[in-house]
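I'd like us to work through together how a protein chain folds, taking it slowly. We need material for that, and I hope you will provide a protein of your own picking. Go ahead whenever you are ready, and we will take it from there:
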Amino acid sequence: MSVGSSGTTDSWTLAVIVGLACVTVLTRCFFFILDRPWGLPDWAHRALHYAPVAALAAVIIPEIVMTQGHLISTWQDARLYGAAAGAAYYFRRRGVLGTMMAGMAVYLPLHVGLGW
């Protein structure tokens, strides 16, 4: 925040704060402001069914196959085996907690024990 020599905030900074607050309130209250019900088109509803999976894949897959911004170059990486074990458990049992436990049960011994 820009503070002058006398300890006061300049008018440009205050205008930016007020403007950002107005934009935030408007975008968060947009659906409450409308006077009629609003719905998404059918194609948007279908697309939203895939959004959580796509977002999860966009976050998880780079963490598994990359190190320091580069693709891993060895098979001796505990993340690969942990992810494979977690995926195998999930496709067999469909349990989220078991998936995490199976993945970590494979990952931790490889990472801590073998230093992968």
In short: The mean pLDDT is 89. Strands lie at 66-67, 70-71. The CA atoms of residues 15 and 89 lie 54 Å apart.
